[in-house]
Target: Glycine/D-amino acid oxidase
Amino acid sequence: MEPSCFRKKPSAQARISECRPASASRIIGTSYTGLNTAWQFKRDNPNARVVVLEAAVVGFGASGRNAGFSTRMFGLEPEMVLLRWGKQKMIEAHRYLEKAVAHTRSLIEENGLDCDYRHNGLVRMSYSEQQANRLKKSYQLFQELGLDGDMRWREKSQVQQDFHSERFNSGIYESGTAYLNPYKQVHALKRLPESAGVTIYETTPVTNIERTASAIGLTTPQGKVTADKLVVATNAYSRQVPDTRALKTRQFPLWTYQIVTEPLSDRQWQNIGWKDRQSFGDNRQMLPYFRPTVDGRILMGGGDAIVYRTPPMDEVPSPMSWQHCEAHLKWIYPQLKDVRIAYRWGGPVSVNVDMVPEISFVGDERIIYSGGCFGHGVALTHLNGRTIADLLNGEKTELTDFWIMNRKSIPMAGDTFFFLGGRVARQALKTRDWWEERNLKGM
Ligand SMILES: Cc1cc2nc3c(=O)[nH]c(=O)nc-3n(C[C@H](O)[C@H](O)[C@H](O)COP(=O)(O)OP(=O)(O)OC[C@H]3O[C@@H](n4cnc5c(N)ncnc54)[C@H](O)[C@@H]3O)c2cc1C
Model:
């Protein structure tokens, strides 16, 4: 049973009075990670008291505003993962992500979550010959490692025929990727922990964390609570989490921006082909991605990413990034030159030095942190919820054996260094894109 101080219906004004339950878990962040963990742990432990504290509102973070690709992508580029982590870890990461996509799908289907889920596949595109050669090498690497089960190589003529754009070169078609509406998903997902008896407090930022031998104390503006276990599911927001100095150097937010067009007419869709309505992304370094929405629009994002100087979590509009997205979409599809952009927004992804996610204990095994999901956290964080529940249960499972658990990520060397390093890396990646596309028309 819930302690009396949590029985009240949560609201912005809800007051959390001091209480010391014998065994309670707190989760910071009502996001895919937070909600999935809360639900899985509560199902395993129906008598446990599980409370989720959210600084803003459900889905405020990346979970409510991402592009919705439920993908097996991991790290920046397959070749980088191979170089940094080696073949075996690359294969294990791919298998974990395969499970993650399957898990997300069955979670949605079995629980009837209304989130416009479409398992339509993904195409990795190239534009120039250099990019096509690089993509071919990635494909050969997937083949060599036996990870190409659902992948097919498509020549330039086939891609152009399917997508009615002369900009495209060859591509990899893969059926194991889906997309969903992230905002609908996070709100549908919220029902699961709530109906299992988890209490969610919105507009309740954790402003202090105090660890003693017997409990973890959390301060919020509405009151104090204690817990025996804590999950810090704050991903790109983790630098804001107080008193977990160990987290300050773990990751940094990188801002990325998206646009959505007005609905296309049937004629406009016919003009651009794309009849299987897959998502696609190109293999530029700056990772632009595109997908249809169920109401006939095109969502496009990426193509640039910005590191802000402190405070890095301030919402900063980026007209330049939105303009870049629109110009890029219309460069691919001049047929859409008169289509209007209906929505523009952005959000932070969590980036660490070695560009792969981590789930770690902080200090001791009572506090678990999840972050560094980069731009590939949709499916990953859904499965991570199950994995973190296993860790909270103190169980060693196939999931907790995955090597991102409690790995030692390379610490960041301070804000200024990261800010400057980020700017230099961004420029280097953009220069590489420019170099590979220098002979293309209209670039
Ligand atoms: C624009 C954009 C597009 C993306 N596209 C894709 C995509 O297509 N596919 C993909 O796989 N991934 C994508 N991602 C990444 C993906 O969305 C994230 O990896 C994932 O949603 C992270 O989820 P999370 O649950 O770990 O954290 P978040 O969803 O970021 O949630 C963290 C939560 O913690 C809360 N919080 C922070 N501090 C406190 C505090 N002190 N007290 C209480 N609460 C606090 C925040 O308010 C927030 O709600 C994208 C991200 C962005 C920004």
